[in-house]
Amino acid sequence: MPKRILQGKVVSDKNEQTVTVLVERRFKHPLLHKTVRSSKKYRAHDADNQFKVGDTVRIVECAPISKTKRWTVLTETAEVSA
Question: Record's Gene Ontology CC terms?
């Protein structure tokens, strides 16, 4: 089974070797047909403590590292400003 890759923004880097990433998804409401935004926070492993608050990163699913960490930071993505 392939590993999931998500993209989100770092909202906390206070813990050692851990960042909290806010991932937002958009979907169409089945009844109202309106675009709805939903967000979820994931705790990801950052071995070198290189990512700071506000960075946009990609995280990949991995084996459990601790009680709450099941994701690892893959890379930092450059935001495209339109």
Answer: cytosolic small ribosomal subunit
